[in-house]
Amino acid sequence: MVGVFEVGAVPFNPDGWGPPDSTTATTPTTTTTTLPLHVPFAPFSRSEKLGRIADFTRSFPSSNANPSNRPSSAKPGAANSSDGPFDFSLDFDAFPLANPDDDSSFRLVDAKPPPRPKFGPKWRFNQHRPQLPQRRDEEVEARKREAEKERARRDRLYNLNRSNQNQPRREAAIFKSSVDIQPEWNMHDQIPFSTFSKLSFSVAEPEDLLLCGALEYYDRSFDRITPKNERRLERFKNRNFFKVTTTDDPVIRRLANEDKATVFATDTILATLMCASRSVYSWDIVVQRVGNKLFFDKRDGSQLDLLSVHETSQEPLPEAKDDINSAYSLGVEAAYINQNFSQQVLVRDGNKVSFDEPNPFANEGDEVASVAYRYRRWKLDDDMYLVARCEVQSVVEVNKQKSFLTLNALNEFDPKYSGVDWRQKLETQRGAVLATELKNNANKLAKWTAQALLASADLMKLGYVSRVHPRDHFNHVILAVVGYKPRDFAAQINLNTANMWGIVKSIVDLCMKLNEGKYVLVKDPSKPQVRIYEVPADAFENDYVEEPLPEDEQVQPPTMDGEGEEANGTTNDVEDKEIEAQT
């Protein structure tokens, strides 16, 4: 017998399409429903999850099967027919209309339009693109490696610059004054360095009043020196070098008596004033007002006789005085190197260029270093002239004309401090080596350039001298010699000639307003400014008693200035004793 599938009564909706609003048929006597019996009904909305109503592809067990095989959710009252080979029953409990646990096959259709793309740089840079985990791990590892390198570098510098546990740092050296300020000194004025940058003054070409001394010719073979064919730096113990202050110069005294000028100084003192804004270490200059004349002097034992090393560097230097890399030891070593270098690069065949007068500081029979003194005069005002003693160390013949040269040497003491190894970089990256020196020794190079400009030198030779071994501060080698025109080099290091003379003119005008007496111009050890103190007339003399500094803070330069035999003495013997004592 074939089973009959009863569809049931389909209600008719006369008002429109679809089922009627009421699902029951009402008669005068009875009320019948058109919905199937025992069928659960669950209302739903379009946003709810819907499952399958019936699945004819699945086969269910017949009525003879064990009812325990039916799903646990099946109810015994569900419609079922077992009269035929096919089971057309609708098991609504097995296939619920809404199954919240069946999320794997559910797809929610979003009818919203897709977001419009935001074009422009703001959207482009603000978007966060997901990165692969492997890429992110690589960046994290790279940052860790960089942090480890930075930590290792700081530890290495800290251990390198500490000779003992109680060693003072570089800051302690900066705060030491070059001269002990006495309580009875009266401060007249203080000038910040910020005002120096705004000064400008133009001077006419100077005139030569007198030339003294004799010069030897420059040896051009030193221009071909490279780190591969370096030359050992020789020592010249028999040659005398003089560092005489302004008032001890017999020529300047004679010119002052003849009223040739109003202001008198040396090229070293003028260069210190011109480059004051680049200085870091403390220095001092003695100013004497005598009548209507002004004399700029350096006192005995002044720092101006030493050459600073690593003055403008950010890396601290050891402050122990007996350390070969301390500021004091390097200053002595630099002065020793410069004197020997200036004599080794000459043609020592006895052929010299002599001038009007011999060396005014040499005694008869002394072997004098090759140097010429040019006493030059500049016009600062209608009734104010300045006379300065300028130095040149050699002469060279170019196109049958003699050109004056200044000779100076930069010294490398330890590549770990500068970060540049001259033996590896001088041939291929000479510009990088010079840039590093300009950063670490800005004041010293500016002063050398100012001295060459004051002397009207045609060429300034810079030598690169290094230690044979970083721990041997007594033996050196010449790695290279490079020549520069002073004006071109001044433009390269941003040294303005008008600004230099503006600084000198302002200080001269300020000192000319002072009363007669002795004053000292001191660069503040902790601030970028200079101060003017009025001192007693016998200050800095042999019989003037000052409160002494502690022994570890006293700085005695390797040169002596004074009258008579001490003033004309050499600096070689003093420097040799200093260096031999350290070795």
UniProtKB/TrEMBL annotation:
Keyword Cytoplasm: yes
Origin: domain of life: Eukaryota
InterPro entries named among the record's database cross-references: eIF3d
Signal peptide start and end residues: none
Record field: compositional bias (Acidic residues): 544-554, 573-583
Entry's localization field: Cytoplasm
Keywords: Cytoplasm, Initiation factor, Protein biosynthesis, RNA-binding
Composition bias, Low complexity: 23-34, 58-74
Region (Disordered): 11-37, 58-85, 103-152, 544-583
BP terms from Gene Ontology: cap-dependent translational initiation; formation of cytoplasmic translation initiation complex
Annotated Pfam families: eIF-3_zeta
PANTHER family in alphabetical order: EUKARYOTIC TRANSLATION INITIATION FACTOR 3 SUBUNIT 7, EUKARYOTIC TRANSLATION INITIATION FACTOR 3 SUBUNIT D
Role summary: mRNA cap-binding component of the eukaryotic translation initiation factor 3 (eIF-3) complex, which is involved in protein synthesis of a specialized repertoire of mRNAs and, together with other initiation factors, stimulates binding of mRNA and methionyl-tRNAi to the 40S ribosome. The eIF-3 complex specifically targets and initiates translation of a subset of mRNAs involved in cell proliferation. In the eIF-3 complex, eif3d specifically recognizes and binds the 7-methylguanosine cap of a subset of mRNAs.
Record remark on domains: The RNA gate region regulates mRNA cap recognition to prevent promiscuous mRNA-binding before assembly of eif3d into the full eukaryotic translation initiation factor 3 (eIF-3) complex.
Family according to the record: Belongs to the eIF-3 subunit D family.
Subunit structure: Component of the eukaryotic translation initiation factor 3 (eIF-3) complex.
Protein name according to UniProt: Eukaryotic translation initiation factor 3 subunit D
Organism lineage: Eukaryota, Viridiplantae, Streptophyta, Embryophyta, Tracheophyta
Gene name of this polypeptide: LOC111275042
